[in-house]
Design goal:
The protein is mostly helical. It has one domain. About 65% of the residues lie in helices and about 0% in strands. The mean pLDDT is about 90.
């Protein structure tokens, strides 16, 4: 997968890949596409239980929900 800086674009690409390759294949291999901060998150922040959960839950409830929750753009604070 190409590098994506927007988590929503990445999530859309993951969904597209699941349609083409099958959800189980994509769900078990999303970690290979992670780079930079997302790879650090997966490697350093998640527990082994959380990693196993990502492989068991649906893409939407596992990987996509977790990635969007962790990397969603922060709303700018207004004065």
């Amino acid at each position: 997968m190409p590098l994506h800086r927007n988590v929503n674009v990445f999530a859309d690409r993951v969904r597209d890949m699941a349609l083409a390759k099958g959800e189980e294949v994509v769900r078990n291999n999303v970690h290979v596409a992670l780079r930079g901060a997302t790879l650090d998150w997966y490697t350093l922040e998640l527990t082994e239980l959380e990693k196993r959960s990502l492989r068991v839950l649906s893409l939407q409830d596992g990987w996509i929900a977790s990635l969007v929750n962790r990397f969603k753009p922060r709303a700018e604070l207004t004065p």
